[in-house]
User: What shape does this take?
Amino acid sequence: MKKRSKRFQAAQKKVEHGKEYSITEAFKLIKETASTKFIETIDVAVNLGVDPKHADQAIRGTVLMPHGVGKSVRVLVITKMKDKEAKEAGADFVGFDDYLQKIKEGWTDVDVIVATPEAMVELGKLGKILGPKGLMPNPKSGTVTNDVAKAVNEVKAGRVEFRVDKQGTVHVGIGKSSFEQKNLEDNFRSFMATILRMRPSTAKGQYLKSVHVSTSMGPGIKVSNQEVASITVH
Assistant: This one.
């Protein structure tokens, strides 16, 4: 069994085992359990009653965090015709043949790739490189589009992509431990409203099984299912 540090054990003692916390209580605790010397990411893990083997239950999408996520995002735009507007929107890298060649050679030093539809013919051939790193553009995540300026602006502003894993869990970072508590709560509510809105009509039984929040180096804190389920879905 993995031995926990004294710091982790001290943080864990603040969390009551088995208790479901309100959203406000949970994020108050998050601030109290962020005890490392560096700024931690605030993670959310949502276990859903879906079967990802079925395409219509493979939850995947994006959410725009109202207060960003506290990190600088490097964006590559692959396009033949929209290079000027991509650069004006703040893309870090813009090109076509040159970057396709760099990717073929193993370069993937970016966080998000945005592509115009005509570029996907060539990008699709690089699936073995981009797929495992989660970099392949996808229409569902808004990264295959002719409106590259909008896509770049949203990614830079804090748009986060998420997808359910084989166990039916969605993991996402919603901010940093340095954020104000209210800003973390706002980001959390935006994310959960998106998850609730995406409930598949074919999903049977309980959709929202459990929701936990934690710092990247801290214990999980269970959030009240009842309160989360009552978040207003726009």
The beta strands are 41-48, 60-64, 75-78, 93-95, 112-115, 159-163, 169-176, 208-215, 221-222. Residues 16-69+159-229 form a domain with the Ribulose 1,5 Bisphosphate Carboxylase/Oxygenase fold (CATH 3.30.190.20). The longest helix spans residues 181-197. The mean pLDDT is 91.
